[in-house]
Structure formats: C-alpha cells, structure tokens
Task: structure prediction
Amino acid sequence: MYLSNRMSNLIVKKNVSTKGYIKRKKVSYVIIAISLLILIFTPTTKEMYRIIGIGETINYLRQNEASKELPDKCIKALDLFLDKITGDNKETNSNNTTR
Result:
C-alpha cells in the first residue's frame, strides 16, 4: 500500500513538473520572439539621425521662402557636395568637367 501511494505521488509530481516546464518553455519562446522583433525593427542611431534630419530638412525647405528662390545651380552644387560626402561618385565623375 505504501509503495503504490508513493508511486502515485511520483507520477503526480512528474506531471506537475512537466506542466511547469512546458509553461516556462512557452513563456521563454514568447520573450525571445518579442526581443527579436524589437532588435530587427529598431533602427540604429545613425539611421535615426538620418530619418529625423531628412524630415526636418524637408519641412524647413517647404516653409522657408528664401529656399524657394534658390537658383538651380545652387541646388546642383549642394547635390554634388552631398554625393562627394556620401561616396556616390559614380555619376559625378562622368558629369564633372571642372577640376
């Protein structure tokens, strides 16, 4: 009698511990999935500076009256300057005739 009670207690404890293990496993999978989503979709610091900087520049150019009066050559010069900074010299080298 004692042996059968002890065996039944072990079986019950094993089922309880298995359920707890499965629950902890599911929770850890959810935490890992959420962490990966945050890691993948959160931009880096450089990307955030670019996103904010470009948006603010566009808003400034739309609202400022002086920027609307800039000649086309000034805008092209700024474009060439920015291409040189970022390293996009593919088109600028072929179109650049000045030394």
